[in-house]
Amino acid sequence: MRRKRKRYVKCSPQVVAENVLNRDFKTDKPNEKWLADVTEFKIMDGTKVYLSAILNLGDNSIVSYVVATSNNNKLVFDTWELAVTSNPKAKSLFHSDRGFQYTHKDFKARLDKQHAIQSMSRVGRCIDNGPMEGFWGILKSEMYYLNKFNSFEELKIAIDDYIKFYNEVRIQKKLNGLAPLEYRSQAMVT
Known about the structure:
Layout: E1 33-42, E2 48-56, E3 61-68, H1 73-86, E4 93-96, H2 105-113, E5 117-120, H3 130-144, H4 152-168, H5 180-189
Parallel strand pairs: 1-4, 4-5
Antiparallel strand pairs: 1-2, 2-3
InterPro entries: Integrase_cat-core, RNaseH-like_sf, RNaseH_sf, Transpos_IS3, Transposase_IS3/IS150/IS904
Protein name: IS3 family transposase
Organism: Romboutsia sedimentorum
């Protein structure tokens, strides 16, 4: 017998933005350009876990992130609220794919309230969000693929620990051999 396919409800995006970023991933200023995306993990019992994050192109740091068992608007909206709370003066170019959360009118209203410019990747062009996709690859190869996770809590703790390590300890050639937050604090001094 053939397996039944899951039925996905196709919906039209409420808001679509141009690709303002246009693969210009260079910036010297923190909070000038933010990239966002959601990725999926599975724990041993098959449960899916979702990680939504915002990457600051100025110093390659993860500005905010949320881990949850549902890929929904709340996941992305909460990630945005954490980013804005920790960076209230940021008026960033905000780039994402065309996921349903980012094309929602309520999300656009949140961006407008912060005076952020919305930018979206072209359909089927994940390279338009290359540094964010690169971060997912790093996180999964250095943490996720090396372990087996039996529960949501185990995976969440591992993600928390890894992002702290990534922001505060993991050196990057692009940042002159410094960790992202170390690079940011050094840039503020000069």
